[in-house]
Write a structure and sequence with these properties.
This protein has 6 helices and 7 strands, in the order ααβααββαββαββ. The chain is of the alpha+beta class.
Length: 188
Amino acid sequence: NLQIISALIYLQADYISDATTLDALKDAQKRIMSMALLHEKLYRSNDLLHLNIAEYVSNLAAHLSTIYKTEARNITITTDVKVGDLDIDTAIPCGLIISEAVSNSLKYAFPGGRSGTIAIVMHERNHCITIRVSDDGIGLPAGMDPRTTPSLGMHLIHMLAENQLDGTLSISSGKGVVYAVQFTRKKA
């Protein structure tokens, strides 16, 4: 069902001429496809309640690479996930956070044909999970506060990290941008 909704949005986008509206539709489609990938992984597994997050993150990175044509832009996305299977209620916000952070990097970090790398790292230690998405792009604009920007993507990252995962979020900028989320794995 989510793939059908995504396809309908894709078709509707052909009739949109306003760039801002078109970008909003494409962002909505990307978010829906991120969840559709997750659900597809669940349906193909023997366990409908838990997800192999390493496999999902790898597929999500490949999907985002295709959408944003990273190969033609000489941008590489790497993944390093050392976390066991996650329950669906944890996997969904993790996937959306990663998708939003990577999308922000692909949209803004590499202007003017600049090449670069985006790294997705997800590790677990003593039931504490850390998600780290970083790029080696141009960094945030001077004076920009990620907590107060009107960007829906940044707002979603904050909301998902703090409200859905009961975690902490830090965003730092210098030589590139680093999104870091930490949360405790919920006990079954």
